[in-house]
Amino acid sequence: MTVPLITKRLIFHFGGYDPIAPDAAHRRFIRELRRFEKTWSATASVSQAEVGPDEAAWDIVTTGPNWRVETRYISVRWDDVMEAYRRQPMWRRVPRALLAFLEFVTAGAFWGYLRTNWRYALFFLYPVFLFSAFIAVAWLLGSTLAKVSGSILAGSAIGFVVFSVLLRWPGRRLYLALLFDDWIFSSNYIRGATGPLDLRLDRIARQIAEAASRPQVDEILVSGHSLGVVLAIDTLDRALNLDPTLGLRQTPVALLSLGSSMLKIGLHRGAIRFRAAAKRVAAAPGILWAEYQAIIDVMNFYKVDPIAALGLTTTRRPVMRLVHIRDMLDPPAYRRIRRSFLRVHRQFISATSRRTSYDYFLLVCGPLSVGRHVNLPERIASALSLDGALLDRANEDENPPERAALAR
Hints:
By secondary structure, this protein is an alpha/beta fold. It has a single domain, classed as Rossmann fold. The chain is built from 18 helices and nine strands. Strands 1, 2, 3, 4, 5, 6, 7, 8 and 9 form a nine-stranded mixed beta sheet that branches. The radius of gyration is 23 Å and the shape is globular.
């Protein structure tokens, strides 16, 4: 019988641009954890959320027939930052978003998207296409009324009303405002204008560095989803400034980049500070970086090594793993989500209903370290039996060749 590989774990999670309140995020986590229990024949309990200004945290205990894991899950907050963008009126949001769009084009980011992943380039253009379509519909209706009524003023008024209604609905249902805010925030981040977020990342970096210096847990994970990968890398770089030996002395540290949009920022000519942070994190010998990508997700860069795409020269690279979202869900469930690009993108941090090569909740609540996850021959599905017991093959060497050499 195999002994558990991980018994205690600490996680710092950076969500993507999804303005969800901490209590709602906690409820979503519990809902997905229940699916994880059913899929992997495990049992789990979750504490109440402890919500502070910097983070929302809760404790999870998961068990199988021959393993038990205690996980401290810290969700780093920036919902308040996103909420400030969400509250701005459309008359202010639209010009700021269009200026941000032009900035990303002129700064070379859009051309970088075309070079590396044309699907992401189309996704980047989606809000512009949608906004242009709203203008076209409003102009057509307004000009038609002007011709029928003989009044340019009446036509202009109805065109403006139609355009305003389209922005509110279906614009809201089609995520136009959300994507506009995403552009504006990304532009501000590159310029260093992130308000309270900057000091918050400093505080979280200190927590990571302090936790890594104590042997109180078996593994520290820093997970980032979508644009949250940028914040995760930024924070780890700050932690490396505090402790250049991060992950080498006491507790191992791993970075999970899930459905990453880091190249959205990194390919911008002005993102000099972020590219330096990415290079330093990639080169850090104490940090194992695992990058998960999926072809159906238009919001990540499929089959693209982010470090190579940024033209960074380092001796180490993220361990890249390609996953198939279709295989994670039962066919009816997959059919329900496949036409929603946001829901497909969110599957990276959702539980699966089928045993497959990737399950976020098994990564963060299961008994296997990230090193074993990325190096098992058939990935995690080969490590657990149908009754949830950990199999002997889970003890295979978790160290990639370069980590093993550094350890020697």
